Amino acid sequence: MEKSKIEDLSRTLATQIRGEIRKSLVDRAIYSTDASNYRILPEAVVIPKTPRDIEITVSEASARDIPVTVRGAGTSLAGQAVGEGIILDLSKYMNRVIDVDAGGRKVRVEPGISIDNLNRNLSPLGLMFGPDPSSASVATVGGAVANNATGAHSILYGMAGDHVISSNVVLADGSSLELSGENYKRRGGGPGIAESLFEKLAALIKESGELVKTDFPKHWRRASGYSLNYFLDEEFNPAKLLASSEGTLAVSTDFELNLVEKPLSSALCVIPFREIPEAMDSVLEILSHNPSAIELIDGTLIGLARRKKGFSHSLSFIDGTPGSILVVEFQGDDERQTGERAKNLVKSLDSAFAVLGSEEQKKIWDVRKAGLGILMSDRGSRKPVPCIEDVSVPAENLTRYTRDVTSLLDEFGLKAAFYGHASTGCLHIRPLLDLREQKGVSDMTALSERTLELVLRYSGVMSGEHGDGLQRSYLNERLFGEDLYSVMKKLKEIFDPRGVLNPGKVVRGADSSSNLRARKSEESINTFLDWSREGGLAAAAAMCNGQGVCRKTADGIMCPSYRATLDEGDTTRARANLLRELLLGHMDADTIYEKGFYDVFDLCVGCKACRTECPSGVDVGKMKTEFLALYKNKTGFTARDSLFARVHEISSVRSTLPRFLNRALESSFSRGLLSLAGISRRRSLPQIAEDTFSRWFRKRKRNPQNGKQVVYFHDTWSEFFYPEIGKAVTGVLESLGFQVILEKQRKCCGRPMLSTGMVEKARENAVHNVKVLSDYVRRDIPVVFSEPSCLSAFRDEYADLLPDNKSLNALLPNIHSLCEFVCAQGGNFPGPGKQRDGRILVHGHCHERSIGDFEKTLSLLNDLGYDARSSDAGCCGMAGSFGYEKEHYEISKAMGECGLFPKIRNSGKSERVCVTGISCLEQVSHFTEAAPVHVALLLEESIQDKSGK
Question: Residue 738, Cβ neighbours under 10 Å: how many?
């Protein structure tokens, strides 16, 4: 593609559109992949803010023969969202609900809104959008329609195309048109392509209607090819042609959609089987009970889920590891009705059992929806590859298809994972292939073509919801036959005569072995952290399959920066992809030291949520630490880096003259100096306490103990700033009968150093702390932490700093959070069992949640009689020093506004706010009117109430 054309287009767009234009190599690389096997580097990325932006972009690109590929969340599994030329990202700004007609059960939305966000808006009305792909938490409505997506409940709600009423679109020449049944009747048109589009469509329908009626696949669960089935509707609606068009016909600026009633109740049955064909044998019988869904989960997925943090307990009710399970759902108006239907199925199938509790049902659905990511979490060179993963056949042919495809896999010597929508014959079968090797590529191609023969034999289609893209478009002529394929090419030419909209998709597709993203690493980097567990840094980055779970905007924590900006460049996925691009040799090695590269990692706050919430366990927090170490050791550390990294030593000096230095640091002169160093003037620095915790500890009156001992790792904050936390911890531990020990020789855990890239300094502290604390391990004395960031440094980062360190391995089982330790003492805690007055909103520190301790905290508080509930909010936005940095003040606030701050404001004055980490305490105090209390103080309060103090 001519560089001059792109430069000319960029200059033109810069003066005419309100949206963003991005041309840097870093930005283009971020958009070069989706959730598929493919990679194509675009020439530029345009992020429109208005429909007019889209009209101008498409018009100017078309005039220069520059291709335009529309992108939503980039979760396409077949490569629909990657392409040359311009990537048009509709997700950042064009994501509004425009209008809701609750009485008519209709909604008009912009294409960039995610399905889950749409449904959250509709939930108070008792309505929802029916199609529910597993990626609904991030997948956009526009992408769902373009893919003709559906999900587990398609036997109730059909395909996305079935719900499209109308759409305002931009055609391939930049002209605009409303696609709807009414406008088609009127033959409403406009300039350019729009002028004669409806007349040409009418002629094509008249010409090909009989062929479509006789030859088009009868199986309705279909996302292969264009949706010619809508040609046969009594009242033709051209808007429905957008379904499965993959952005090759037009660019939608909004959609009017049908809605369905939200179910009031559901119940599940789980049925284990020894083999998958045996499970498929039962599908028709189960369908006779009129379920809302029948989902397959195979033994491979069950085994991986049990090993994956975040899912390990979700399937604990299943004995052993069966070859597969079917999850059958019944929906209804009340629990009694759905429960009875589930129990009736249990009676008819000996091995089935019912799951009626909503929490248990959610755990099962979470595993099923995260199936792809969980499969991708298995480290190794062979990956579960999409190629035959979306075949759909009529349910009555499912058993025979499953047996034949299993034999075919055996013939190729391949293992595969099976999961998917058994109710409609759409199974996601993913063979394990290494696409970095030529054999893996040739096996993928040959397997796809042999599977096509089975698809034709069993009256199916190659795609039941994932679409064609770069993966399967080349098979469409053989799938549909030459005549129907010719109709599809004519349809494309009517809408897009110059072929500029997402070329090479649906029709005229290239061989599936072109533009593959997998390749062997070409760049070798001497890393600061140990990456052997991941198979190397390149392998760790390659674990990101592009599924985009990091783009969710509700539930959990991941990813705080994306939630605040809605920018693809601020996702976990973008950071992993950028590292992979570098390590695969797509970028010059020195690109890592450029500002654009730094900016992508800059807003990662190291919350660690990706370790557990990313189904594939992509640890971008660790990658951020590695990146900072590489970057800063090359470019140099700043004065601010040194101030934050040495916070423990500096605080120790400040504690010698607390009053004087507290006042001095609040002076205009000091604030000015700190501002020059990059620390925000709008933040108040924490005040050093009048007396340190350790001084109080030495002077206090000691209670007689029974000989049990415990070490309290008193962190920087409890030592110098909040000694009341240390005092509370001491009181709690002593109330349990322990003699509390403070280890004077311990050093800072190293977290502040890791956050600034000073890995070697953090390693020194880690070596020292492990050595000092190992003596207590030998004496069987546990170590307790009150600060989650310190504990997570030991549990997570120390293993990366000190690989294969035997002393560390011995230490780790003996370190505990305060609440974890108290819970482990069973009934020994002397807190009251009575119900206490008032409610408590508890916000768990990100690191506490990442290491799985927060549920213990919440449970303990409720056991002590508090009416405690989780904030269920994401990151507070402080993230240690991040929120103090001048350039991050506003984004830090925005992160808190994404969930936590509104929850606190809406909690009411009678509800106290409890936090479990100092970052959260500082952030909540700064941006809300709440007076947050550390969890240790609540535990102490419980003791004092019990003792009558």
Answer: 24
Eight-state DSSP code of residue 718? I
Rounded to an integer, what is the distance from CA 517 to the centroid of its chain? 21
| Mode of pairing for the β-strands spanning 426-433 and 708-713 | unpaired
Residues 74 and 548 sit within 8 Å (Cβ to Cβ): yes
| Strand, helix or coil for residue 499 | coil
| 562: helix, strand or coil | helix
With both helix axes pointing from N to C terminus, report the angle between 889-897 and 918-927 in degrees, rounded to the nearest 10: 90
- Average pLDDT in the 900-915 region? 94
Q: Tokens for 186?
A: 């009127």
Residue 134, both tokens: 């597993």
774-783 pLDDT tens trace: 999 999 999 9
Helix (H, G, I), strand (E, B) or coil at 516: strand
Residues pairing with 783 in the sheet: 711, 815
What are the φ/ψ torsions at residue 296 (nearest 5 degrees)? Answer: -100, 135
Query: Nearest-CA neighbor of 569 among 29, 14, 72?
Result: 29
Instruction: Give just the sign of the alpha carbon dihedral 428, 431, 436, 438.
Output: negative
Q: At what angle do helices 482-495 and 197-215 cross, to 10 degrees?
A: 160
Q: Residue 689 gets which letter from DSSP?
A: P
Residue 620 has pLDDT above 90, yes or no: yes
Residue 142 has phi, psi (to 5 degrees) of -60, -45
Q: What residue type is assigned to position 501 of the chain?
A: L
Sign of the C-alpha dihedral, residues 631, 635, 640, 645?
positive
Q: Which of 70, 227, 203, 48 is nearest to 143 (CA)?
A: 70
Q: For position 437, what pLDDT does the model report? A: 96
Residue with tokens 């002209």: 175
Amino acid residing at 63: A
What's the rounded Cα separation, in Å, for the pair 895 and 642?
Answer: 25
Strand arrangement, sheet containing 933-934:
867-870, 839-843, 911-915, 933-934
**From CA 814, how far away is CA 817, in angstroms rounded?**
10
Spatial contact of 231 and 153, defined as CB atoms under 8 Å apart: no
Residues facing 525 on adjacent strands:
none
Taking residue 925's Cβ as centre, other Cβ atoms within 10 Å add up to 16
Residue position matching structure tokens 């989960």: 297
Indicate the pLDDT class of residue 673, thresholds 50, 70 and 90.
very high
φ, ψ for residue 805 (rounded to 5)? -85, 110
375: tokens are 């499969």
Amino acid at the residue 194: A
Q: Residue for token digits 């980055």?
A: 541
End-to-end CA distance of the chain: 79
Going by C-beta distance under 8 Å and a sequence separation of 6 or more, which residues neighbour residue 518? Answer: 37, 383, 434, 435, 436, 542
Residue with tokens 């058994």: 422
The confidence band for 832, taking pLDDT boundaries of 50, 70 and 90, is low
CA distance 304 to 289: 31
Pair 580, 537: CB distance under 8 Å: no
Q: What is the 3-state secondary structure (H, E, C) of 903-933?
A: HHHCCCCCEEEEECCHHHHHHHHHHCCCCCE
From the number of C-beta atoms within 10 Å of its C-beta (0-12, 13-18, 19+), residue 23 rates as middle
Tokens at 481, concatenated: 């036959």
Q: Are 734 and 771 in contact (CB under 8 A)?
A: no
Q: What mean pLDDT is predicted for residues 587-592? A: 94
pTM reported for the whole predicted model? 0.95
* CA atoms of 921 and 924, how far apart (whole Å): 5
Closest CA to 115 of 553, 546, 544, 569: 553
Domains and CATH numbers, the chain: 1-246 (3.30.465.10), 265-495 (3.40.462.10), 537-634 (no CATH), 693-947 (no CATH)
d(CA 423, CA 398) in angstroms, rounded, equals 10
Query: CB–CB of 793/802 below 8 Å?
Result: no
What is the separation of C-alpha 453 from the centre of its chain, rounded to a whole number of angstroms?
A: 36
What's the rounded Cα separation, in Å, for the pair 335 and 303?
A: 31
